[in-house]
Amino acid sequence: MTPAQKQEILNLRTLKLTPKQIAGKLGIKVLEVNATIHNQAEQRRIIFYESVLSDFCF
């Protein structure tokens, strides 16, 4: 999957499309959409917790 496709998935998700709708629109598997959404959420959680920990530790 290209970076452009990943970004398009995230853009469509912000428009409240379901993973099934996004997959249909982009012609990819729902599993790929779900994985991209999950990875983005995980990255955001990591960034959040790193910022909380850095504020707490210093």
Quick overview:
The chain is an all-alpha fold and about 60 residues long. It has helices at about 5-15, 20-25, 30-55. About 85% of the residues lie in helices and about 0% in strands.
Any overview of this molecule?
It is a single chain. The N and C termini lie far apart (40 Å). Helix 1 crosses helix 2, helix 1 packs across helix 3 and helix 2 packs across helix 3. The protein is elongated, with a radius of gyration of 14 Å. Helices cover 83% and strands 0% of the residues. The chain has three helices and no strands. It is mostly helical and 58 residues long.
The total count of helices amounts to 3
Helix content: over 70%
Please state the CA-atom Rg, rounded to the nearest Å. 14 Å
Unreliable residue runs: none
Number of strands: 0
Q: On the 0-100 scale, what is the average pLDDT?
A: 92
Please describe the biggest sheet, giving its number of strands, its sense, and whether it closes into a barrel.
Answer: none
Tell me the fraction of residues in β-strands, as a range: under 5%
Secondary-structure-based class equals: mainly alpha
**What coarse outline follows from CA principal-axis ratios?**
elongated
Terminal-residue CA separation: 40 Å
Sketch the topology as an H/E string, one letter per element. Answer: HHH
Write the layout of secondary structure elements.
Layout: H1 3-14, H2 19-26, H3 30-57
Give structural attributes.
single chain, 58 residues, mainly alpha, 3 helices, 83% helix, elongated
